[in-house]
Amino acid sequence: MSDAASRFVEVFREFGGDALRDVWVFDRNGHQPLYLRDDIESAISDIDVSHLVDNERFGYITRDTYEALYYADYSYTIRGFDAFEQFRTFVGDTPVGVFAGFDVTDTGRNFAALNDRIQDIADDLDVEELLED
């Protein structure tokens, strides 16, 4: 795992602790997991993950749409499912997409703080390295 990937995974682990399920990176052409918890790796072994990632790629379009329609800059997306919450953002100038899943909690999470931390790290790294492993 590259230094960039290790640093990203560490931020997600610090944020989510044992509730962290998975961390993925993607661009317009490819994707790869940076972290998969054992139970999640088993749970997704029978599905075509590329379909999930393709859905996240729509974020490139919606990101541009939000940027054009709203008076504020788009930062991140949260999706709530019955068993987990999914966070997605984009980093870098290219940009590279990053999404992560967390077990549901009844106390809530500060995803804005997570996004700020991810963006800060991305500013210090070559985010293209995230897809090189």
CATH topology, anyone? Beta-Lactamase
Structural class: alpha+beta
CATH architecture: 2-Layer Sandwich
CATH top level class name: Alpha Beta
Tell me the Rg in angstroms.
14 Å
| C-alpha termini separation | 6 Å
Query: Could you spell the SSE succession in H and E letters?
Result: HEEHHEEEH
Strand content range? 25-35%
| Total beta strands | 5
Summarize the amount of helix as a percent range.
40-55%
The CATH superfamily label reads Dynein light chain 2a, cytoplasmic
- Number of self-contained structural domains: 1
The strands making up the biggest β-sheet line up spatially as 2-1-5-4-3
Regions with pLDDT < 50 over 5+ consecutive residues? none
Task: Explain the overall architecture.
InterPro entries: DUF7522. Pfam families: DUF7522. 41% of the residues lie in helices and 26% in strands. The chain is α+β, with helices and mostly antiparallel strands. The protein has a single domain (3-126), classed as Beta-Lactamase (2-Layer Sandwich), CATH 3.30.450.30. Strands 2-1-5-4-3 form a 5-stranded antiparallel beta sheet, sandwiched between helices. The longest helix has 21 residues, at 49-69. It starts with a helix and ends in a 9-residue tail after the last helix. The model has no long low-confidence stretch (mean pLDDT 87).
Q: Which helices and strands occur, and which strands form pairs?
A:
Elements: H1 3-16, E1 20-26, E2 31-36, H2 38-43, H3 49-69, E3 76-80, E4 84-91, E5 96-103, H4 111-124
Antiparallel strand pairs: 1-2, 1-5, 3-4, 4-5
Quick take:
This protein is an alpha+beta fold. Helices cover 41% and strands 26% of the residues. It has 4 helices and 5 strands; from the N terminus they run αββααβββα.
